[in-house]
């Protein structure tokens, strides 16, 4: 945790050399940007939430919060903070857990004519992976911030709202 926090760009630094004997990452000399959408989808949120609860290491928490703030930020905001943007990340529904805000456009388009057999409406951004990750993110986002929403039930279903 200490060596992740000590990286020039914290979590955004990307991969690093890991020493199995010491359990530490080598600290990079130069800042780099290396972000994986898969980390945020497959466990990074849960692991970091747990260790931050269990271990008081403010620099690690600061590095984690910085990563969370900028993961779904605009390319301009990422570039202003890190000197470059994070590129084209996919599966943004899952990483929405990082900042409890999904950045996907919810726009649908009408299709007709020779492109389709039957006229209809399409949400081109919907896929099996996106739908599954959105469902998981919605559940976890409510678990993480639901108690801060106006009118959200307190105490798991009790009437002490």
Commentary on this structure:
By secondary structure, the protein is mainly α. It has one domain. The protein is 37% helix and 6% strand. It has helices spanning 2-5, 37-41, 44-54, 58-71, 75-82, 128-145, and strands spanning 18-19, 24-25, 109-111, 120-122. The chain has a two-stranded antiparallel sheet with strand order 1-2. The longest helix is centred in the C-terminal third of the chain and has 18 residues, at 128-145. The radius of gyration is 19 Å and the shape is globular.
Total number of β-strand segments?
A: 4
SSE series: HEEHHHHEEH
How many alpha or pi helices? Answer: 6
List segments where confidence is low: pLDDT < 50 over at least 5 consecutive residues: 157-161
Terminal-residue CA separation:
37 Å
Q: How many structural domains can be distinguished in the coordinates? A: 1
Specify the structural class: mainly alpha
The oligomeric state of the chains shown is single chain
How do the strands of the widest beta sheet line up side by side?
1-2
């Amino acid at each position: 945790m200490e060596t992740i926090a000590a990286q020039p760009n914290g979590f955004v630094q990307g991969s690093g050399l890991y020493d199995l004997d010491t359990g530490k990452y080598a600290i990079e000399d130069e800042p780099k940007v290396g972000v994986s959408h898969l980390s945020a989808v497959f466990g990074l949120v849960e692991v970091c939430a747990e260790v931050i609860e269990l271990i008081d290491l403010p620099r690690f928490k600061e590095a984690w919060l910085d990563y969370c703030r900028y993961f779904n930020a605009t390319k301009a905001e990422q570039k202003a903070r890190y000197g470059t943007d994070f590129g084209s990340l996919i599966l943004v529904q899952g990483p929405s857990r990082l900042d409890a805000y999904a950045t996907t456009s919810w726009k649908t388009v009408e299709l007709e004519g020779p492109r389709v057999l039957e006229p209809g409406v399409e949400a081109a951004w919907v896929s099996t992976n996106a739908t599954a990750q959105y469902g998981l993110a919605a559940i976890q986002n409510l678990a993480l911030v639901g108690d801060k929403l106006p009118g959200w039930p307190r105490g798991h279903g009790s009437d002490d709202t």
